[in-house]
Design a protein that fits this description.
The complex is a heterodimer. By secondary structure, chain A is of the alpha/beta class. Chain A has 11 helices and 9 strands. Chain A has 2 domains: about 140 residues, Aspartate/ornithine carbamoyltransferase (Rossmann fold); about 150 residues, Rossmann fold (3-Layer(aba) Sandwich), CATH 3.40.50. In chain A, about 35% of the residues lie in helices and about 15% in strands. In chain A, α2 crosses α11 and α5 packs across α11. Chain B has a single domain, classed as Rossmann fold (3-Layer(aba) Sandwich), CATH 3.40.50. Chain B has 4 helices and 8 strands; from the N terminus they run βαβαββαβββαβ. The termini of chain B are close together. The chains are: A alpha/beta, B alpha/beta.
Amino acid sequence: MIPRFRNLLGTEPLSREQIEFILDQTRAFQEFQRHPLKKLATLRGKTVALAFFEPSTRTRISFATAASRLGADTMNLQAESSSLKKGESLLDTVWTLEAMKPDIVVMRHSSSGAAEFVARHIDVPVINAGDGSHEHPSQALLDALTIRDRKGSLENWNVTILGDILHSRVARSNIHLLSKFGVRITLCGPPMWLPRELELLAPNIRRVWRIEEALDGADVVMVLRVQTERMHEPALPADEYIRRYQLTPERLRLARPDAMVMHPGPMIRGLEIDPAVADGPQSCVLEQVTNGLAVRMTLLFHLISAPATDAPHPAKDSHASD
Amino acid sequence: MRVVEKRQLLSAEEMDRTLQRLAHEIVEKSGGTADLALIGIRRRGVPLSERLAKSIAGFSGVNVPVGTLDITLYRDDLSTVAPQPVVQSNDISFPVDDRDLVLVDDVLYTGRTVRAAMNGLFDLGRPRRIRLCVLIDRGHRELPVAAVFIGRTVDTSDTEIVEVRLQEIDREERVMLVDRVS
């Protein structure tokens, strides 16, 4: 029996078995995306609170669509219209949401640790949909699923992550997850975004300054978005970033011939990635999006449908004997 | 609470004979094998449906398509029964539209599994007809559901359990009636 988890706050606390369980469980939901009728009643009457204190388009739509396909309703709190703007504290906002009786809270916040903080103060499960530069576990799970589907397993690949590693919660969640499977991780980007502390996150991590060296022998290349809001930082104008770090078809040829190219989106064509790579046969960007739905349906299904207590259950499953 | 075996309902040999008869009945009452397809409900409906198809192929020479259906997402008792539900994928490689489907399961009891299975099938398309085939009908229906093809009808009490053991899953081949005693 795999230990259940009540909240999904990050990939760091998950065991390898728990991760494998989630990935195995996505199978049925992947198949479901191909159904002519994409609507289940499984979570009918359940409510998913989407509390996005930081703007988000794709993650919010993905969770909202996952909820809707499972038959659940959603309540939406968005950064732009948030009462946070009027000075309400995070806890007051969350307690107000909780008072409307959702069955789960999916939250994003610009502060690292915000999801864990909220989970300690409310009685419903919390899914972290991104907290500052800390974690974004559902993204790492969908990335792992995409790798496993294409490569047949997760073990022992060479994964290169390119870009602003320091500020990236996607990178951190991926590092924690992949390192549990013996993946060798190469981090590459401008030195100011690549502090030595990153090597302490997990074993088998190395930092590399030259993109050519980082790509050599890579089985998977994850390109991170360049957060243009950070480009004003000294010593890195956009054209310099393009010249040194953009993933171009020429550079990609240094990786394994069957190397996968991934990007969590939103992707800025012509900045961190050459359009020819983004649209090329090695790109898995759209598979990632589709897999994201399956992963989020799996997470909502399991965190909502499993009972909150670990009390013993009736001896016989009425359906099993039916 | 203990579980004790009260009596054996079917031996391996009787199960085999029963399935042969059911296979013949299915073809006979369907007027042939055109559009016919079998859908096994996980778990024990799956090997049963495969055996029925094999039997049909044996006497008619026709390989009737067989699919597998998982009803976990269609259950009405998710938060009350399983400590950790495990979802399996469906495996139905043919369109169900306009098909003459026979759902196959081991035991018919409350009827809730069949209700769930039908909801699952409707999500995949619009079959022309759905009929039900079970190895054991033990009564105690909670929904208006009836099987057309029945291996054996057994009178049971509420506390009793019908246990179907199949070689493919349980490495044993028989059907037992067991009871819970406290």
